[in-house]
Amino acid sequence: MKGITLRFVPYSEIAYLSSYKRVKQLIELSAANRILLIQGKLTPEEEADLIEEVMKKIGKNPKFKGVEIATFEPSKSKNLSFFQAIKENIARALFGNRDAFTIVGPASIIKEIKKDPKKLELLLKK
Amino acid sequence: MVSFIQLLKRLFFRRRKPIKLGFYGPPNTGKTTLVNRICKEWVGEELGKVSNVPHETREVQFKDSVVIDFGNKKLTFKIVDTPGITTKVDYEDFLHYGLSTKEAKKRAKEATKGVIEAIKWLDDVDAVVVVLDSTKNPYTQANITILGNLAARKIPVLIAANKIDLKKANVKKISGAFPEYKVVGISAKYGHNMDEFYEALLNLVK
Q1: What predicted TM-score, i.e. pTM, was given to this entire model?
Q2: Which of A66, A115, A117 has its CB closest to that of B89?
């Protein structure tokens, strides 16, 4: 039976990288047939950069099929009071969004990530 | 009664350039079908080819000077129909639609370039219609990335929940997923609810 590596990427590992390096590193790690569980989330601009870089990589290497990615933010499904929301926003601005987590994996392994506000389901290819 | 100053403003400060209206969304949600309907209704001719094979639109397509005159509003648009945005392109998927391996690989390569071009156009549109398939789960990363980038750029967005003619359509699920946006359920194929769509579109760009 073939195994799948699930690699945890703590926030500290990518926090101090530039956006470009962060995106590049995530693509390289996931291209090596690993599913990444990342503490934190990318900004919308980084997500767009990630898609661009993934498309460039597919264009160069047809064996690479792209990635599946999903972000889960537990705080978004919580009903926070006004002051709790301010507190969370300040903490995020200072220390980054560690509350969220992101899953990135190669599309050659992950068929689909089904997501709704309360759960994430990873459907793997046979 | 229109004052003299208002008249001067209208004459000299009227928006001369058409509004660049982008059509974004994942592949196969009906972007080009909707663009074709709009162009056919207001210009008299369609813009692009549509098919069931994903990534039929692999280059950004334009239609200049599309004048939409609906209700008491009239605006001129430059329509920008973009290739579907996705995080993966697998040429083997196209083989299921009867394409040869060579054709499938070529289509995949063109599709990746199309996605990059679509992303680059995010910086150059004035307003966007995000076309989603109302029969599909809206919580996908492509949708979140598109909407997140438009919000970051402060670009006005209207969501067209397409394919409401299909049984599985669920417009409420899309409204629930993206409550901060106006969502209009339509069928671009059959022209259902286009009046509400035009009204929402003209209200989007004031």
Answers
A1: 0.86
A2: A66
